[in-house]
Amino acid sequence: LTERLQNAFSKLRRKGKVSESDVRDAMREIRLALLEADVNFKVVKDFVKEVREKAIGSEVLDSLTPAQQIVKIVNDELVKTMGAEAVPLNKAPHIPTVIMMAGLQGAGKTTTVGKLAKYLQENEHARPLLIAADVYRPAAIKQLQVVGESVGAPVFEMGTDTDPREIVRQGMAQAAANHNDYVLIDTAGRLQIDAKLMQELQDIKEIAHPNEILLTVDAMTGQAAVDVAQGFNEQLDITGVVLTKLDGDTRGGAALSIRSVTGKPIKFIGQGEKMDALDVFYPDRMANRILGMGDMLTLIDKAQKNFDEQQAAEVAEKIQANTFDFNDFIDQMDQVQSMGGIEDIMKMIPGMANNPQLKNMHVDPKDMDHMKAIVYSMTEKERTNPELLNPSRRRRIAAGSGRPVLEVNRMIKQFKQARDMMNKMSKGNMGGMEQMMGG
Ligand code: GDP
Ligand code: MG
To answer: How does it assemble (predicted)?
Structure first.
């Protein structure tokens, strides 16, 4: 996918100027790329049409090449279509805020209830009550109890013999009596949307007056996700979407499809089975993931001022103070990559051309995305304090980023090498350092 897009764009870049047929070529590649990312074909059609119109009509900024201009338009449009900004959870004016789950069987509703409970506990010191309203499988109640226990949240259940409507009624009463500030209602799913399920969900909605109806969709279902989302939205008027299983190798095209078909915001993404594997949805990050062009976009961002001098000075300072961390590392890699790769830049530094350490610093553009995925799977603490990264954290990061542990280890090693080398350089050859950072 990425390769194809980049081929299209490198074709454009070589030419320097964009003609209408160039745009047509690029748009064909973008269309294929989106389809490969599992974006629904109808959504792709509309999207490409819009982008094409903008690309042909647009003036190319002085500071950008025509190719960069097109990438920027594609990316901006992708971000815009997905809602531009992260959308927070709706809140009730008086407690409790009621969040009702909906979705097909296996989409991740029960797991997400647990993750949300944990998220709310950690971010708002919330005391949520979980209601077990899936009575069709005995294991479903047990599963919610296990989940509730693992995050330390109480579960209201009445076994499998009570009607889910009654369970919700009594669960709400219990939440009121106990002054729970959140109620999370786990509901049943089916393998397909059916009338009985929808009626039950509509009734629960009547009873509980949820502030949020979160449709949970498995990102790996790709194209099919659109029909599911449309069906649920028409019958329940959902308020938001949780896209699960983005830790798999899906590129997340479902995010674009669902948002553009339902118009409802994606609020969270699930990136693993563990209770901490829930993240706020950011359209710009998802756009990067769908296009797979993080470094290209960075290049555009940096186009006008190739390197910001102040930033370079900051980094040099950090290195000297030995506080250069993973955030800086990724930042620098982005910048270095946008200037044509680290090898080329290092060669500009006096005395570095034949340095054997240069070989260890080789960074392939493809590896860049993997490295970023790894860093994004670290907590903020781990990013600023790499010494925390013990084997169990590394395993978690590997699972979170979908990369092998071996690669996580290698990346951490590379980071340390880079840091050490920069440290040496900053002591020995400040001129070279500044040159590298773009001073
Ligand atoms: P429900 O039927 O909608 O309640 O779905 P469950 O919560 O039972 O989840 C179905 C399966 O998907 C379980 O094995 C979960 O562990 C798994 N699952 C849920 N969310 C995620 C996720 O974000 N990533 C991964 N890898 N697995 C998930
Ligand atoms: Mg369930």
So the answer is: Part of the signal recognition particle protein translocation system, which is composed of SRP and FtsY.
